[in-house]
């Protein structure tokens, strides 16, 4: 070649697929997609209504769990799920669906508030800056989101509707007969006309406004209470049970958490326990997540039994009423309200020293023990520890079946929040009661005949005997005998006996507790509630929404010494007097009111965000009913409706998912939505892990600065230890997507994250392995574009049969894999096809090249869009039809059949895949190698598994 025809090095480089070219291609097409609204999904009506032909297609609503806009930005582990849903959304769009895929930001929360406390920067300022940074990072990945639908929970136009939903819940009650929520006004009407008895027996008209408010507070789905809460002095706020670790400390900050009585807002989620449990069956969720929710809800059947205690009755819930004759003492939760009512002034005569805890009076003992119990979390209190603690109250209750006096203790292994906060202790047949009875020298009575030969004297046992398949003994009293009955029959008999006498009844209990909904923080949604001079709560009218946060000088709640259990909350809003105290006209003239100074928890905004994606600009309604019905309504296979695919981490199995389900059911009951469940299909992606390194002090060093030499690892010349764990800032092993995009391009990053392994398992990050997917894209590029001239090299010719078979098998396999979220195997099939086409060493036929590009488009959209246009198309690859495999080319012309004799392979036959068993047997027995191997031996049996196996038994 002459010198004049040799391209300059920079000219040749201009046509090679390099990181620089990838960056230019990606930026250009992202701009085009934004300008043309490529990913906009039309609604059937409203301001986002679009092409009726597109709306007529089957819809697909795909969601990621809300990201929180951290100041640290994204590392490569964060976008794993976002890339996966993007690939799936693109594939669904190409297979004829109207796809709604968008992303907003869950932006209220403690990190921004803590940053505000430290720096004085308003949480909105730092949060919005973080959102903008995250948007830039996400855009660079080429995610196909409908940006018209994006929002943040801190937008007043959004949290107006969060407040509105709170008011719907506040103004509702759960009708157990109708098994649904109803407006509180209907309950008031029933009280007024006498069709429903007012609790306490008085007429509704006789009650004062404050008394009526108290009555309704006992029914409302959002209500205030003075129940024990998890108070964290170190954070200056109360926490939900789910926000407290197993060792009784706050998830955020690791501060001690104590039980304390405070007036707080709660959500009566327990009213929905049965429905939350039953409706799990119809959801397409991982069984592990369903099991976690079932365990958290914790349904158990049993009976409520009344034990007389002076003039009071202490009600217990038990799943084993058949063992009532074996109850030899009672235990109340330390917080039980009856404890203070009956404490005697002195210990009764004959009180065991071990029962008193060394205190002079019952009051002293109970006070000291309560303080001790307050320092433990519910998880700690229920731990299966051998050392049981408690103290005698100085009083005795009466066992209703035997008439015996039984001592009443308080102990921390009984929780006020579970059942009734009181138990009947049957130490012979409950392990925890057994341990407690041994520790406090309490009597034990065997009432269930042991079947393991241990005898009937519990004093000789090492542990309780617990069985549901045994016979009752020692269980005869006035008008009732359970002796000789099995457990099931005995349960029924004793429950009927208790019900007949009005001292008990069969019932169902749940582990689930009502949701504590107040936080002593600034950065959260204000409650749309004000209080009058009598302390009665009043909801704000919708016309006053949104109630926005005021500017404050100090963003922090008052915090205390971490172990100051007696401290009380002081919220940032409570210090803003001109905002707290406000004159309002709520319909009966201008009066002075006091605003609620707690804020909602950060979970509030994520309880309903799927609905706002549907109709984000609607100023007059939460969501247009027709739009909601279209995207989320019940349909075949999804009787409760919900999002078609929801992808996120398994760590949200209980908190977010349970809360969102509860809000959906309330809105469904009140007629605001047609979907009783928010998310029909749930998929939990795994985690991207990374190696971290620690020096001799155990301090993490930057992973990027570590060198490997001869199997050892060194940082700045000193050897360090390697460990495997989460990727993150604290471990100094984070790799940002920006770094990978700079070095290889976004399409390479997308391919690598999808190729690392199955989406639902955790996988290790290896930057060195990214280059493999980069080379795949380079080979794809070279198969279509001449690297020296930039010309497209495809030819207008018909592909050969071998090429067609390879192509259609890849289409068939990769298409099914994408539909099933198996992106790693889809990439493997595409790689195999691309390599085969490369090895052929000839220009690609146009029809093959175009289908190859379409096949790659969901996974690597930028290079696919570029190649699609270079192939002469003017419309976007995003809206092309995904290739359809021709079945004739998917099925092999022949398959290899293995012929075995005595388990050893004697021949391999190439046979049609549709060959019958009879024909295959005849062909195998006639094969020369088989005949020779048989050597005339008698054939006892021929086992045929057409078309791949023949096994001859001689």
Give keywords.
Ubiquitin-like (UB roll), 954 residues, Isoleucyl-tRNA Synthetase, domain 2, Isoleucyl-tRNA Synthetase, Domain 1
Summarize the structure.
The protein contains 31 helices and 35 strands.
Helix proportion? 25-40%
Number of alpha- plus pi-helical segments: 31
**Separation of the first and last Cα atoms:** 70 Å
Give me the CATH fold name of one domain.
Answer: Isoleucyl-tRNA Synthetase, domain 2
The major beta sheet can be summarized as: 6 strands, mixed
Compute the number of strand runs.
35
* Fourth-tier CATH superfamily name of one domain: Valyl/Leucyl/Isoleucyl-tRNA synthetase, editing domain
DSSP strand content = 15-25%
Query: pLDDT under 50 segments (min length 5)?
Result: 1-9
CATH architecture of one domain: Alpha-Beta Complex
Mean pLDDT: 93
Question: What report would you give on this structure?
Answer:
Among the domains are: 299-510, Valyl/Leucyl/Isoleucyl-tRNA synthetase, editing domain (Isoleucyl-tRNA Synthetase, domain 2, Alpha-Beta Complex), CATH 3.90.740; 735-889, Isoleucyl-tRNA Synthetase, Domain 1, CATH 1.10.730.10; 892-953, Roll (Ubiquitin-like (UB roll)). The protein is of the alpha+beta class. Strands 26, 27, 28, 29, 30 and 31 form a six-stranded mixed beta sheet that branches. The model is unreliable at 1-9 (pLDDT under 50). The longest helix is centred in the last third of the chain and has 19 residues, at 801-819. Helix 23 packs across helix 24. 33% of the residues lie in helices and 18% in strands.
């Amino acid at each position: 070649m002459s010198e004049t025809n040799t391209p300059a090095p920079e000219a040749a480089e201009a046509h090679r697929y390099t990181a620089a070219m990838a960056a230019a291609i990606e930026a250009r097409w992202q701009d085009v997609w934004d300008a043309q609204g490529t990913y906009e999904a039309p609604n059937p009506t409203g301001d986002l209504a679009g092409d009726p032909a597109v709306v007529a297609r089957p819809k697909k609503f795909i969601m990621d769990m809300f990201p929180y806009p951290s100041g640290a930005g994204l590392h490569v582990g964060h976008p794993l799920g976002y890339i996966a849903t993007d690939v799936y959304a693109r594939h669904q769009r190409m297979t004829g669906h109207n796809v709604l895929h968008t992303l907003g930001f869950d932006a209220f929360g403690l990190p921004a508030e803590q940053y505000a406390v430290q720096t004085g920067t308003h949480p909105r300022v730092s949060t919005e800056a973080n959102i903008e940074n995250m948007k830039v990072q996400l855009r660079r990945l080429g995610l196909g989101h409908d940006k018209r639908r994006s929002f943040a929970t801190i937008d007043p136009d959004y949290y107006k509707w969060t407040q509105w939903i709170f008011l719907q819940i506040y103004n509702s009650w759960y009708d157990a007969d109708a098994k649904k929520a109803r407006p509180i006004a209907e309950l008031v009407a029933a009280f007024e006309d006498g069709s429903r008895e007012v609790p306490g027996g008085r007429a509704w008209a006789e009650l004062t406004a404050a008394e009526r408010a108290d009555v309704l507070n006992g029914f409302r789905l959002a209500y205030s209470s003075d129940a024990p809460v998890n108070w964290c002095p170190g954070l200056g706020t109360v926490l939900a049970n789910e926000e407290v670790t197993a060792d009784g400390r706050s998830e955020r900050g690791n501060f001690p958490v104590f039980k304390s009585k405070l007036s707080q807002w709660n959500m009566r989620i327990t009213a929905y326990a049965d429905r939350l449990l039953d409706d799990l069956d119809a959801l397409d969720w991982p069984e592990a997540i369903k099991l976690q929710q079932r365990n958290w809800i914790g349904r158990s059947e049993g009976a409520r039994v009344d034990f007389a205690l002076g003039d009071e009755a202490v009600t217990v819930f038990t799943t084993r009423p058949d063992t009532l004759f074996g109850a030899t003492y009672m235990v109340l939760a330390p917080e039980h309200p009856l404890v203070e009512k009956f404490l005697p002034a002195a210990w009764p005569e004959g009180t065991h020293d071990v029962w008193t805890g060394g205190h002079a009076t019952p009051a002293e003992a109970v006070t000291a023990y309560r303080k001790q119990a307050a320092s433990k979390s519910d998880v700690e209190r229920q731990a299966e520890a051998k050392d049981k603690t408690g103290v005698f109250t100085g009083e005795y209750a009466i066992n209703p079946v035997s008439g015996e006096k039984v001592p009443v203790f308080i102990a921390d292994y009984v929780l006020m929040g579970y059942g009734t906060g009181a138990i009947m202790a049957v130490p012979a047949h409950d392990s925890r009661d057994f341990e407690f009875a041994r520790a406090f020298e309490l009597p034990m009575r065997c009432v269930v005949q042991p079947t393991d030969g241990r005898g009937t004297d519990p004093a000789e046992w090492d542990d309780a005997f617990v069985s549901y398949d045994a016979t009752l003994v020692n269980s005869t009293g006035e008008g009732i005998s359970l002796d000789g009955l099995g457990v099931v029959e005995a349960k029924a008999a004793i429950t009927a006996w208790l019900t007949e006498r009005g001292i008990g009844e069969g019932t169902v209990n749940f582990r689930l507790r009502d949701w504590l909904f107040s936080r002593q923080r600034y950065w959260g949604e204000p409650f749309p509630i004000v209080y009058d001079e009598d302390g009665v709560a009043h909801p704000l009218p919708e016309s006053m929404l949104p109630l926005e946060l005021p500017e404050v000088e100090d963003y922090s709640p008052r915090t205390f010494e971490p172990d100051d259990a007696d401290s009380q909350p002081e919220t940032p809003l409570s210090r803003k007097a001109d905002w707290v105290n406000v004159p309002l006209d709520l319909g009966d003239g201008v009066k002075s009111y006091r605003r609620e100074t707690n804020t909602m928890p950060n979970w509030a905004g994520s309880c309903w965000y799927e609905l706002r994606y549907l109709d984000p600009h609607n100023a007059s309604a939460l969501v247009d009913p027709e739009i909601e019905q279209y995207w989320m309504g019940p349909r075949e296979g999804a009787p409760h409706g919900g999002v078609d695919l929801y992808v996120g981490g398994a760590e949200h199995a209980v908190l977010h998912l349970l809360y969102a389900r509860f809000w959906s059911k309330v809105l469904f009951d009140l007629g605001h939505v047609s979907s009783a469940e928010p998310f029909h299909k749930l998929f939990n992606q795994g985690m991207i892990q990374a190696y971290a390194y620690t020096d001799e002090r155990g301090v993490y060093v930057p992973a990027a600065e570590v060198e490997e030499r001869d199997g050892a690892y060194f940082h700045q010349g000193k050897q360090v230890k390697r460990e495997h764990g989460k990727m993150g800032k604290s471990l100094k092993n984070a790799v940002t997507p920006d770094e990978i995009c700079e070095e290889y391009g976004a399409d390479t990053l997308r391919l690598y994250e999808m190729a690392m392994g199955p989406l639902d398992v955790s996988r290790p990050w290896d930057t060195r392995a990214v280059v493999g997917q980069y080379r795949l894209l380079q080979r794809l590029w070279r198969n279509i574009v001449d690297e020296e001239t930039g010309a497209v090299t495809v030819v207008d010719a018909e592909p050969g049969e071998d090429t067609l078979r390879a192509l259609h098998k890849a289409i068939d396999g990769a298409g099914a894999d994408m539909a099933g979220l198996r992106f790693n195997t889809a990439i493997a099939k595409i790689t195999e096809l691309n390599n085969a086409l490369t090895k052929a060493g000839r220009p690609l036929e146009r029809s093959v090249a175009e289908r190859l590009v379409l096949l790659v488009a969901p996974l690597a959209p930028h290079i696919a869009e570029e190649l699609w246009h270079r192939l002469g198309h003017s419309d976007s690859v995003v809206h092309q039809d995904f290739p359809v495999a021709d079945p004739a080319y998917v099925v092999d012309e022949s398959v290899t059949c293995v012929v075995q004799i005595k388990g050893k392979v004697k021949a391999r036959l190439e046979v049609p895949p549709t060959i019958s068993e009879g024909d295959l047997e005849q062909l195998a027995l006639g094969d020369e190698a088989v005949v020779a191997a048989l050597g005339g031996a008698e054939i006892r049996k021929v086992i045929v598994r057409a078309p791949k196996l023949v096994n001859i038994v001689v």
